[in-house]
Amino acid sequence: MRLPPLVYLLGAVSFLMDVASEMAYPLLPLFLASLGAGPGTIGLVEGVAEATASLFKVVGGRLSDRLGRRRPFLLLGYGLPALFRPLLALAQSPFHVLLYRFLDRTGKGLRTAPRDALIAESAPKEALGRAYGLHRSLDTLGATLGPFLAFLLLPLLGFRGVFWLSALPALLAFLLLFAVRETPRPPSPLPPLALGHLSPGYRRFLLVSGLFALALSSNAFLLLRLKELGLSQEEVALAYTLYNLLYALLAYPLGGLADRVGLGRMVATGFGLYALVYLGFAWARTAFWALGFLFLYALYSAAFEGANRAYLATLVPEEAKAGAIGLYHTVVGVLLLPASLLFGLLWQAFGAAAAFLTGAALALGALLLFLVDGTGRRAYPG
């Protein structure tokens, strides 16, 4: 079964925007340091940015459901980063970078839930895994190409030149959105987005995902572990590029596999793979073994990310699809901060092995909660 053209179009938009974002993102800590920012300021900028994205996801989803429209939120969500890109290129202080990151992540928050809802509404239910898998694949290809372009262009153009050039793919992404067509629904008042109004399956999956989110420490810790085990900074950067590339190549075929074997089974497999990767990083004593588990992590990402979004889309009501998706992303996003904080404190106090073992235990707990309900019976649908 062919996917609708809209899915490919939204994938192309995400590809271009990720090229733009990832051309700038790896350079931001160095750029901030060149403006006089210390580690605390850099942490504040990124903390505010990620918290903003998480909080606005439920806002964008709810407003989209209320108005019965998706496209205006895509235009606003992708337009803000494109429009304010010059603010980053012209920044003279860390505050200017903070302001840009706030506007950029506001856009990401506003567009995420309406975009995911539009994919769910346009793709056949039996092809949701492939649809989200294709989107994640194109998105991650952009995240792979962006840092590579930054690596090539930085010696030639400097920070500001790369930032200016990154505006081009962002602008192209924005212009592509004018080809998006949707069938608007009439505006309607919505009940409060209370958990009691949502399905038991959604509430249960939100609980499982909240527990799993506490295991989702930043990928930076995986890279730090690689460096601790002997890789140079350049080798770590290359390993992360290969991880993204492998993720991008596997996401679409694994999305199709999820449609065949069942979205629930693929989500459960993702929980198990994550636990295995973290056990491996706790056990590894050489960079060779850690690299093997990093590439297994790419398999987890490709298997889980698309299937997870598709599975979520089957649990939410049609009249509040974007709002429920946004609530999910907000809850998970907010929990990522304490997850990384807990992981960092455990590493600092007891070593890397203790931190990774804790993450593995939380992931296994989420897997068991997903598989079995309170009476000990199997809980998830295929």
Automatic annotation (TrEMBL):
Highest taxon above the source species: Bacteria
All copies of domain Major facilitator superfamily (MFS) profile, residue ranges: 6-377
Compartment list: Membrane
Transmembrane domains' residue ranges: 83-103, 138-156, 162-180, 205-224, 236-255, 287-304, 325-347, 353-372
Membrane in keyword set: yes
Alphabetically ordered keywords of this record: Membrane, Transmembrane, Transmembrane helix
Gene Ontology terms: cellular component: membrane
Official protein name in the record: Major facilitator superfamily transporter
Organism this protein belongs to: Thermus thermophilus (strain ATCC 27634 / DSM 579 / HB8)
